[in-house]
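Re-running TIGR02001 family outer membrane protein to confirm reproducibility after the cluster update. Everything else is unchanged from the original entry.
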Amino acid sequence: MQQARIGATLTATALSAALMPWQGASAEGPHSVSANIGVVSNYIWRGQSQTDDQAAVQGGLDYAHESGFYAGTWASNVDFGDNTSYELDAYLGFAGNITDELGYDLGAVYYAYPDGRDSDFAELAASLSYRWLTAGIAYTVYGQADGAPGVRNDEALYIQGDLYYHASLDFTLPFDLGLSVYGGYTDFEYNDGGNDYAHWGASISREAGDFGTFSLNYDQVGRDTYDDDPKVWVGWNKEF
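Result of re-run:
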């Protein structure tokens, strides 16, 4: 995430979003491994397109242990207007339930752009979920753009000290539909708030058995420094 492309990274539509109370590994054993693949008409992360409003193919691999430990990797094509063509993320964490209705998730994510320049960064994240409400915070602990040649301090984004706050409401609707309403705020370390922004959106999804899960999504950035046009996009995801 260099200064020229604010917000270019993940939610990983797969990670892209609210952390739910941990359900543990399958009843067949303490370990579980799963894979996922998806296609979206626009890869949106924290309100902003990572593909210049074009489609993306995405996928990942996840490991989980019944103790609550999890780890995984996830990838997607991206388009930041330079030579960066793909994103490859790695993450791990520990999640669990404090009570039947209160859950937590503590994790770390490394966002890598192997063919990008000074773009990688890493975050520590924590969230709590209670019934239909999830809220959390992410703190950037490392960013390649910090002190990189040709990048001024007041332009450097996604460096140590950046904060991201988020919350979501998730509901089950009739006809097996799911509704998520969410929002977030990015507080960058540099430029005295000149790059900070809020975003919000909503998603309606439906599982279709062996055909995966389909979604219709809306996202909006609340600052005209960026592309604040409403984004409406569709997605499909299947887990194996």
